């Protein structure tokens, strides 16, 4: 990844599908002096994503792409990103799969946050599975996006202990809090 001179911030798009707490956290981070990125665009696969309100709140451009026809849509997104001179993509609770040709075009420039200690628990329902398996630890990972789901190179992880009293809700909350530290830390690690 390009080394920064401190003069220019990397033009970044954040992709979301839901609440957008990671998006909000990344926007706040992007406004700090130490942030190597500036968030210029928010993309969602659904107009119902609550996180889209942060586009209005923070005056950031937003766009919804319908994923019914995956291939065509991925192409439309690529064209749109190019038009907006986007150089870097952060997936933050984005629940659709990007085509391999899309990923190739942005090779090494798409990262994702996942609520587990990868390679453990790729895919969905990570906390349910960790509790069911009586794991001692849970956590979150930030990784590069490759064509294979949740399998790209890991950039950073944070680990937390699962207590006997933990429920799905308490564990989700604890992990999400860690995610909010991990995503900015990972971006700093990539660009510094
Ligand atoms: C986060 O826990 C994120 O790790 C997860 O969705 C949540 C989104 O929360 N992502 C995935 O499961 C991706 N496979 P947020 O909308 O509040 O940021």
Give keywords.
2 domains; Rossmann fold; alpha/beta; binds glycinamide ribonucleotide; 7 strands; 192 residues; globular; seven-stranded mixed beta sheet
Written account of the structure:
This protein has helices at residues 21-30, 53-57, 70-83, 100-105, 126-132, 168-191, and strands at residues 10-16, 37-44, 61-64, 88-91, 110-114, 137-144, 154-161. It has 192 residues and is an alpha/beta fold. 36% of the residues are buried. The mean pLDDT is 95. The protein folds into two domains: 8-107, Formyl transferase, N-terminal domain (Rossmann fold); 113-192, Rossmann fold, CATH 3.40.50.170. Strands 3-2-1-4-5-6-7 form a seven-stranded mixed sheet, with helices on one face. Helix 1 (21-30) packs parallel to helix 6 (168-191). It contains six helices and seven strands; from the N terminus they run E-H-E-H-E-H-E-H-E-H-E-E-H. Strand 1, helix 1 and strand 2 form a beta-alpha-beta unit. The structure holds glycinamide ribonucleotide. The site of glycinamide ribonucleotide (GAR) has 14 residues, from helix 1, strand 5 and helix 6.
């Amino acid at each position: 990844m390009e080394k920064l001179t401190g003069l220019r911030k990397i033009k970044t798009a954040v992709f979301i599908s839901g609440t957008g707490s990671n998006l909000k956290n990344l926007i706040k981070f992007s406004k700090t002096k130490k942030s190597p990125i500036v968030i210029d665009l928010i993309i969602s696969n659904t107009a119902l994503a609550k996180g889209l309100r942060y586009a209005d709140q923070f005056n950031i451009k937003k766009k919804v792409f319908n994923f019914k026809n995956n291939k065509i849509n991925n192409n439309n997104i690529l064209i749109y990103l190019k038009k907006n001179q986007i150089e870097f993509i952060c997936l933050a609770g984005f629940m659709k799969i990007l085509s391999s040709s899309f990923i190739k075009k942005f090779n090494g420039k798409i990262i994702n946050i996942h609520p587990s200690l990868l390679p453990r628990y790729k895919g969905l329902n990570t906390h349910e599975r960790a509790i069911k398996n009586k794991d001692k630890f849970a956590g979150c990972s930030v990784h590069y996006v490759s064509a294979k789901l949740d399998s790209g190179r890991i950039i950073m992880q944070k680990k937390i202990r699962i207590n006997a009293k933990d429920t799905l809700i308490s564990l989700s909350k604890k992990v999400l809090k860690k995610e909010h530290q991990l995503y900015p830390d990972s971006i700093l690690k990539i660009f510094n």
